[in-house]
Every structure is written in C-alpha cells, then in structure tokens.
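REQUEST FORM: STRUCTURE PREDICTION
Request ID: SP-0412
Submitted by: Lab K.M.
Chain count: 1
Length (residues): 451
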Amino acid sequence: MADSPTTDAFTTDGPALDAPAPAPGAPRMVAPITGRRATDGPGPDSPAATRNQAVEIVIPVYNEEDDLEASVRRLRTYLDRSFPYAAVVTIADNASTDRTWEIASELARTVPGVGAVHLDQKGRGRALRTAWLASDADVVAYMDVDLSTDLDAFLPLVAPLLSGHSHVAIGSRLARGAYVVRSPKREVISRGYNFILRAALGNRFSDAQCGFKAIRRDTAGLLLPLVADQEWFFDTELLIQAERQGLRIHEVPVDWVDDPDSRVHIVRTARDDLLGVWRMAHQRTTADEGPASEAVPEPGRRPPEALHPGELRRYASVGLVSTMAYLVLYLLLLHSLGSYGANALALALCTVGNTVAHARFTFAPRSPVGLRHVIAVGLGGFAIGVGFTTLALGLAGVLGTTSPTEEVVAIVVGTAVAALVRFVLLQAWSFRSHARAAAGAEAADVVAAAA
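STATUS: Completed
RESULT:
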C-alpha cells in the first residue's frame, strides 16, 4: 500500500503501481492512514509489536452505507485490543450505487489501519481477487460486512496459516461445536447445498459459504488463476481447487447469527451456485474419463448395454443440482401455493431442465435423442416425481408433520426414490433404446438445458 493517504491505480494481474490518477475502469484505492504496509509490522505501541507476520482482512461490500462504518470500527477495535498480529482492514467496494464508497474512503482517511478499494464491476469474488492479489500480507482473509461470525474465532482461523500448518482456513457453521442462529429456510438451503457439494464433487470440508475465510498469500497466488467465478460461487470453487491441488484446509467451528438484512438474492445465488457445481462436476468427470473412444462395433453385433463408467456420476450431478433448485423453488412458493401446489409447480419447472440435461449431458455421448422424445420422457419423469413426492407429503401429513423443514425432509425422501426409478428407465430404455431405433433422426432437435 502507499506510504501516505493517496489514490493508486492497480490491476488484478500484479502489484500496485503508483499513478497520479486511476486509469479508466481500474480499481481505485485509498491506503490506510498509518502509511504502513501490511508486512511492515505494527507500530511501537501495538500489542503485536514483537510479531513480524501480518494479516489483511478484506470486507467486500455492495450498497452497505447503513452498516459499514459501525462494522469496520468494531473490527478495528477488536484487532487493536485482542489480536496479537499486525493486521490491516481493506474495504472492497464492488460497484455500490449508494454512499458506500464515500463512507469507505472517509474511514480509510481517518481510521488507522483501514484502507479501501473501489471496483466499477459487481461481484464478491472479483472484489476479493482484486484485493488479495494486491496485498503484501502473509495471510489474506475476508469477512462479511455484517460480522455475523463472532470475532473470537478469527485468531484460531489464521494461526494455522501463519504457522505454516495449513494453506486455507474456513469458518464452519456445520462443524461440531458451532453455534448458529438463523431461519429454518436458510438452514435447509445451507445444509442442502453442502450436501450436494459432497455428493457431486466429493469434497471433505463441511461449509463452503460461510463468510469467514483466510488463505496464505502464496497459496492465493497459486489458486486464484484456477478460479473462474467472480461472484458468490468464488468461495466454493476456491476450496474445491484447493482440495484438488492437495492443499490442507483448516476448519474452525464458529458462533454465527444470521443477519435478516442480508443483501444476498437467494434464488439468483442458488441458481448460479448450482450451475457452478455442475461445471465443476463436469470438469472432474471429463478429467477422470479422458478422451472419448470412437470404437466401432463389429458388423452384426449390438453396442454393449453395460452402464458407462461416467453415466452414474453425471446422473447424480444433474440430479443433485436439479434437486437443490427444486427445494429452493418449493420453499419460495410454499407460502402462496401451499405444499402440494408448490411441490407440483417446482417439480414441473425443474423436470424440464433435468430431462434435457440428462439427454445432453448424462446419456448423450452414446445416445443422441430428439426433441419429441425428450418431451415424452420429461412428462414421464414429472409423473413419477410428482407421484412419489405427493405420496411422501401425504404420509408426512398423516404422521402430523407440519413444519417446512419436516416437509422438505419428506420431499427429499420421495425425490430419492423417484430418482432411482427414473434412472433405471432412462438408462435402460428411454434414451438408449430410442437411439438404437432412430439414431440420428432428430439429433438436431435437442434443446439447451435449463436448470
């Protein structure tokens, strides 16, 4: 960072470059008033004066004019009084349209140990990438601006990184010992999302999306070029890439209280996250299977009907993404349509994308199908799904279950049974049999997947 309060221009591809004014579209930065780089160590009066490691905490914000100042001052007070390492706070404003940048700039000018950077494009991942790549700290971290996570967990979060024990550290609301206060809907969505991650991608960490993470700066330099997402899936993709590179991820159980005024758009974020899971699962499947073979069967012999090694994994990936989308839609429609109406509409919407995705992604490598057949299979899949889930809801009602959480559990059970039935039909008959009967007749009619 600069040696005095000033404005610097820098890019995400390298360190800060001194310039009299920001280039058009480039991030704008206000350095901490102390004029001390993160790695220079604390001042002589700081409790961390004997330490030579340093941490930079990035707070990504978008239209947070109401809470920003109070949260930053609270965090800065904690660091000055209770944190035994040199640390700076950087506010990363990604294209706010209210007074957020004005407040962030003022805090950077007047509060020691606080800096600010402004980006002209939205995206939490983009803001973190920009700030982390420009950092001089040994460890870079981030927190949500609402400080929902108790700050007493911050030292246990970064200590294993500063000591060299681990490469990445995450706060977990799902680990043993965590204390969490949030609505049943958010609890179901969070647990469902992390379950889908484990089933589709085989990860070992427990909580992908808690806004309380840290990473060694040298590790960030290795992983960030591998991360494609610039928004909310950034966290998940970073952790998946860390595991795929064989890096150690340290988890800390946290005390966490939900912020009812969250700026997160649940439906859009869930959709983007599910698409991200699908992309990561497809990358892994492609890497596992290697180049597709073009073997031609001998004349007079039928192609083997055994299950392709990748079909089950692809089926599970599509099904898990579809199920998560279905649960989100169900919870959003529940209040206005009731359990049965919400179930039918959510299932109908997801079955369309689910069926086409299976045609394009799961079975397509050996069985191209036509649009009319996709529609027929989709209708059959919807009938199977709505039958089993309606039965599950009915049984739940007979047993006296009334809460949304219990209804979701019943639906998941019904969906799992329906998925097994659909897989048998799709794999053994629908797509492959049709391809043998009319191979290539309507291959151009397959429509794009809509998840």
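NOTES: The CA atoms of residues 270 and 325 lie 7 Å apart.
Reviewed by: T.R.
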